[in-house]
């Protein structure tokens, strides 16, 4: 009976051969795919780049054709001459040929898009080439003065226009620049940050008026700032030409930059952080000090560095307020104090080659200093509000692990106390008194 039931279910004993299905019956069981069959081809990956091969070929062909036709026009067909005319003619012809080639494959909007893209990229290349030319030309022209150690360790007290580059240097200008920028930062950083906080935390008509004035002052000519300090501080108050007056003029130029950049950064702080702080009962000043400013710390640092870079390179305000001297002056309130931009201006005015080389060396030093400041600002400003550096992230991770370990130890201590059980107290039962009989006697 068991055998019949087993056969009825089609079961077979382990190790026994599987019986063949009867003739004409449909095959039963799972059918495995044939591994020898050729797998279907995968779908071709679609290119997502905006730059295609046809665009590159059209651009290269248009450039080659425009150069060839421009050379033919300037040398054979037309009485054209001049390098600037050659470049302008070749560029216009390049745009026309490029639009013609693109129109063979694209419609009108695509052609206009390609032409606009070509113009924008051309302008970017022109600006990059101009910047590289300024940097390279300045460094190359100052190569004669920069290798000398005395150029950075000596002043011009014992050097004249005819002395070689082995005598004299820009120590007095470097020290003067550091002193003036230090005073300007001491004045502008607190005032700029406070003004930016006021513009964001106390909205109203007056804040809108202040923001308008700040935006207008960002485009203020530097000579106007120098004239303002010269008229109000030097002529009205009787302050002599000194590093203090130059620092005040530099502060006028730095302050709008710091306020504007800080204002933009503080605007990026999420409003939910402020709302959470207010919900916890914190006043406005505590919210600003413990929530807003720490969140925007990297952006505020970038704003200060940008303002510093603007103040370091100012020449006109310093020319009107600082005076000029060839010796090192450490007192900003007494006597003229020269800075790097002013020293560059005075050196290049001389017709002597040595003085011109000193001027370009000073300009190269100033240029490298400004580039370093902008690189630092770019590095710090690349992070968003509240985003930490690698070191800050590592400190947070270490602190989190330390807190986790402390919480685990506290939980283990509580668990051990729970497992030990409560302390048993023996309570004596009350004395029932002498036994009484059934009848109560």
TrEMBL record:
Entry GO MF terms: phosphate transmembrane transporter activity
CDD domains in alphabetical order: TM_PBP2
Annotated coiled-coil segments of the chain: none
Keywords, in A-Z order: Cell membrane, Membrane, Phosphate transport, Transmembrane, Transmembrane helix, Transport
PROSITE patterns named among the record's database cross-references: ABC_TM1 (PS50928)
A Pfam family assignment: BPD_transp_1
GO CC, any one term: plasma membrane
Topological type in the membrane: Multi-pass membrane protein
Example GO BP: phosphate ion transmembrane transport
TM ranges: 54-74, 80-103, 115-140, 173-200, 212-235, 241-259, 359-380
InterPro entries listed in its UniProt record: MetI-like (IPR000515), MetI-like_sf (IPR035906), Phosphate_PstA (IPR005672), Phosphate_transprt_permease (IPR051408)
Domain annotation ABC transmembrane type-1: ranges: 174-377
Start and end residues of each stretch annotated as Disordered: 1-44, 385-441
Chain intervals with Basic and acidic residues compositional bias: 400-412
Subcellular location: Cell membrane
Family, similarity comment: Belongs to the binding-protein-dependent transport system permease family. CysTW subfamily.
Function: Part of the binding-protein-dependent transport system for phosphate; probably responsible for the translocation of the substrate across the membrane.
Record-linked PANTHER family: PHOSPHATE TRANSPORT SYSTEM PERMEASE PROTEIN PSTA
Protein name listed in UniProt: Phosphate transport system permease protein PstA
Source organism of the structure: Actinacidiphila rubida
